[in-house]
């Protein structure tokens, strides 16, 4: 893995049911075995997990390609990869 480009975990979002007020740590490097969440696989790279604090309970579509311009949530960027 390059320290500049993340690994594409999948070219579609991860639909996850979240609970209001809970924090979720999104994997930004793409190497985590617990996608879309961090398992520490970024250690030794320039990547770090990104916190997503759920404002309300429901489905969140976390970015799977790691290229979303909107951060942890999918913005459709995977369609251009």
Structural overview:
By secondary structure, the chain is mainly beta. It has one domain (1-74). It is built from no helices and four strands. It has strands at 14-18, 23-26, 50-53, 58-62. The strands form two sheets. It has a two-stranded antiparallel ribbon with strand order 1-4. The chain has a two-stranded antiparallel ribbon with strand order 2-3. The chain starts with 13 loop residues before the first strand and ends in a 19-residue tail after the last strand. Keywords: 2Fe-2S, Iron, Iron-sulfur, Metal-binding. Residues 11-48, 49-80 form the Iron-binding zinc finger CDGSH type domain. This is Iron sulfur domain-containing, CDGSH-type. It comes from Sulfuricella denitrificans (strain DSM 22764 / NBRC 105220 / skB26).
Distance between the termini: 17 Å
Shape designation: globular
Main β sheet profile: 2 strands, antiparallel
| Distinct helical segment count | 0
Q: What fraction, in percent, of the residue positions are helical? A: under 10%
Helix/strand order? EEEE
Bin the strand percentage: 15-25%
Give the helix/strand class. mainly beta
- Cross-sheet strand order for the largest sheet: 1-4
GO molecular function, one term: metal ion binding
GO cellular component, one term: cytoplasm
Organism: Sulfuricella denitrificans (strain DSM 22764 / NBRC 105220 / skB26)
Pfam families: zf-CDGSH
């Amino acid at each position: 893995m390059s320290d500049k480009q993340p690994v594409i975990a999948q070219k579609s979002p991860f639909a996850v049911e979240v609970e209001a007020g809970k924090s979720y740590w999104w994997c930004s490097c793409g190497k985590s075995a617990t996608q879309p969440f961090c398992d520490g696989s970024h250690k030794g790279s320039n990547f770090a997990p990104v916190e997503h604090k759920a404002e309300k309970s429901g489905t969140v579509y976390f970015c799977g390609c790691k290229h979303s311009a909107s951060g942890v949530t999918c913005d459709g960027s995977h369609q251009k990869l």
